[in-house]
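Student: I would love a firmer grasp of how sequence relates to backbone shape in proteins. I am handing you a single protein, as its sequence and its fold in token form. I am told such tokens are a discrete way to write the fold. I hope you can help me see how the letters and the tokens relate. Take your time, and here it is.
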Amino acid sequence: MLICYNYIMKNWLINKNVVVTGASSGIGKDITKILINKYNCFVVGVARNIDKLNDLKNSLGEQSNKFEFVSADVSKKEDWKKIKDFCNDKNITVLINNAGTMLPFTRADKVEDTDVERLFNVNFFSTIYGYKTFCEEFRKDKNCAIANIASVAAVTSLPGTSYYSASKSALCSFSKIIASEERKNFFIGTYLPGMTSTNLFTNKDNKKPVFDEKTGKLFNKFSTSSEKMAKKIVKCLAKKKRFKVLGKDAKLLKFLNSLMPIKSSDLYYNVMKKTKLSSFEDIF
């Protein structure tokens, strides 16, 4: 009993009430399962797709009572009031800003303004809305926390991802700054996953998928599974790591960018061109 008690006291994440955005699929779905099954957390999942949220709840079996959800679009400021109202009686102490979207690989001048705005609203502004929604309450308890899921794209420059990289860079900078500003109040962590097998690359919001079938198969050979990446993220949060680049590919890309901040992008450009993959044809 004493060992169990000491473990719980040392692991602050156990039994917490958590909000996870983008919970219906990919990393968010796996983070939700880990929090419930391993840490005995109560999770409020946020996503637009009610059917997928229902499927997730049903998949939890006997643990399904630890999961509730609200259908909301985190890119819309007014929907965060809906999320906050839903959580009013749930004593939420952890927020995981995980929702994200990506555009197909395209030259910057070819991307529609409406697509750029949607991308930034989901990837960047949703994090601002989430932070502002919960920060006042979180300042009352130093055991509260926010985890912001960015991307290795924030610290590397891959041709064809100009707006995605920019949105994740903005998120990364914002998250690190508020982590410093709030360090005496509550914890904020910033995590940058590398290539991960999720439906981000077949996003139905796009006019076409990010990857075609051939590129997708190649990508999956080098990417980390969603479940494994979710485990890495939750582990970082449990240990209260302020900043972490996750995945071997992500660490390599970050290293190359620090070694060759300009030439690395040219290197990626030449390699992508030589592959002659249709997913990259709009770059050249």
In short: The beta strands are 17-21, 42-47, 67-71, 94-97, 145-149, 187-193, 196-197, 224-225, 243-246.
